[in-house]
Amino acid sequence: MGPVFNFKQYQAYAAGQGLWSPSGTVTPTKKTQNGSAGSGGLTNGIGIGNSWEEGQHLLLNGRGEVDKVRGNPQVPRRMPEPLPYAAQALGTAMIFVALHLFLKQYFSPDLLLHPGFFSMGFAGKWGYLVMAGICYRCSFFFIWGVAEAAVILSGFGFSGWSNAVPSRPDWSRAENVSPIKCEVTSSLAQMPAYWNIGVGVWLRTYVYDRITPRSGKPTMWTLILTQVVCAFWHGLHPGHYLFFVNAAIGQHTSKRACVGGRQLFY
Fold first, then answer.
1. Is residue 164 part of a domain?
2. Is the domain of 196 the same as that of 259?
3. What is the Cα–Cα distance from 39 to 191, expressed in whole angstroms?
4. CA distance 183 to 194
5. 159, part of any domain
6. Which of 43, 49, 179, 231 is the S-S candidate for 241 at Cβ 3.0 to 4.6 Å?
7. Are 32 and 56 contacting, i.e. CB atoms less than 8 angstroms apart?
8. Active-site pick, 57, 100, 234, 237
9. Active site residue 100
């Protein structure tokens, strides 16, 4: 599931309206007072949300952000053929599944309980954990890539046209992970913007923003409660709650460290 505006977009897609109009006419977009609703997007939705979502469902892209005007709004532009872009997404997914199968031979997470792992030194354990994590994440990059390719091929993944010259089609609506940014991000606080993007925008729109006091700023407890909801989403295993609560603390600490570092050096 995802924010309600994504479901509204699906209705527009099914009806051949907006970006998917046969005539190619695209309604010019304007920024709303609320601005961005989050940092991700999925292709489903639930029937609740802020009042501005109903009127803006054709003007929001799949990442929960208000689209910029795509080139000249007076020139009708049809959605391009999705097959080449779907093939590119599928090809990228195949690379990650091949990488996963290769790394699993040497850095399988199953071997973390093997006696040989405990006999390693600190550097060996640390290196093995890093590579095992990459191996495990590659399986997610693969399955999300296949899903992205399917949504692009259906046409629903089309998000409009870029502001570049010449303008290029934007197929980011179905993107649920940014693999390279996940692996090289400099801050734990930035990870939700690149990993499981759809769940991230749902949690921000319907949990994080709603429990933040109107007269104040979000606190660490705001983030912890949001992560508890995320843990409940995943299941009832205690490990889920231990992981997500610690992730919330880590994200908050990372954010405060970045702020403190900038004040110290700049």
1. no
2. yes
3. 11
4. 10
5. no
6. 231
7. yes
8. 234
9. no
